[in-house]
Amino acid sequence: MGALSATDLAGLAAGLVVAASAAGLMAGLLGVGGGIVLVPVLFWALTFTAFPPQIAMHMAIATSLASIIFTSVASARAHDRRGAVDRGLLRLWGPGIVLGALTGGLSAHFIDADALQAVFGIMALLVAANMALPRALVIAPALPGARALNGAMAAGTGLLSALMGIGGGTLSVPILSAFSVETRRAVGTASAFGFLIAVPAVAGFVAAGWHVPGRPPLSAGYVSLVGVAVILPFSIGLAPVGAALAHRIDTAWIRRIFAVFLLLTALRMLLG
């Protein structure tokens, strides 16, 4: 693809700023991983600037994951200082998370954009439904005792998160909550999962996309380095603002509004 025009660059930059700002605010307000916001906006911004969907979806997912490497470290450290990261749970789920995420990053290259959009859309519908519930769904009093079953759940979480371009919280917090893991511990440990998901997944996306033609300038594989540089200041800077607002306002109505946003996003992804 040729060089982008000034209008294209402005449109892409505006999309990145909006996505990063919304991701940071939602992460602080609701504890929702920013990828669920970043990926669709990045995808639409890239297609708006005439990148083909086959490249745009992969770039959106990989760039979102690359930004999560940095944001998850900051989040995990903050939660760990408050004693909210469960190291036992991290050891139990960590290997499966890494294996699933690496598999997702490497295999995404062989999955076309329509299929990735379908994965994102279906999972976004489930996340929206979960956010619309008045309270967390609980199906068991504790996590299963079998390590193999925990490993399978962790690997599935890592795989789907990598294919969606999201961090640890969006999928793992509802799963852990369903097995009666206390919310503060689930959210804190999920922030560390984000790093374990993002690093191997990004490695897979970089390797898989290294020789793919038609990518934006200054890309490492499917990761837009410019995109990451634009996203980080806004997503990291606005997360504390969202967290402060969460202590001052009732977030229940924000959860419902965000659930509607996810519903519309999912339908747009699924229906093209």
Describe the structure.
Belongs to the 4-toluene sulfonate uptake permease (TSUP) (TC 2.A.102) family. One of its GO terms (cellular component) is plasma membrane. It is found in: Cell membrane; Membrane. The protein is mainly α. The chain has one domain (6-271). Helix content is 76%, strand content 1%. The protein has ten helices and two strands; from the N terminus they run ααααααααββαα. The protein has helices at 6-30, 35-48, 53-81, 87-107, 113-132, 147-164, 169-178, 183-209, 225-246, 252-271; strands at 219-220, 223-224. β1 and β2 form a beta hairpin.
List the helices and strands and how they pair.
Layout: H1 6-30, H2 35-48, H3 53-81, H4 87-107, H5 113-132, H6 147-164, H7 169-178, H8 183-209, E1 219-220, E2 223-224, H9 225-246, H10 252-271
Antiparallel strand pairs: 1-2
Helix pairs in contact: 1-2, 1-9, 2-3, 3-5, 3-8, 3-9, 4-6, 4-8, 5-10, 6-8, 7-8
Radius of gyration: 17 Å
Helix content: over 70%
Order of helices and strands: HHHHHHHHEEHH
Outline type: globular
Share of residues in strands? under 5%
Distance linking N and C termini: 23 Å
> In total, how many domains does the architecture comprise?
1
Secondary structural class: mainly alpha
Subcellular location: Cell membrane; Membrane
Organism: Meridianimarinicoccus roseus
GO cellular component, one term: plasma membrane
Pfam families: TauE (PF01925)
Summarize this entry quickly.
The chain contains 10 helices and 2 strands, in the order ααααααααββαα.
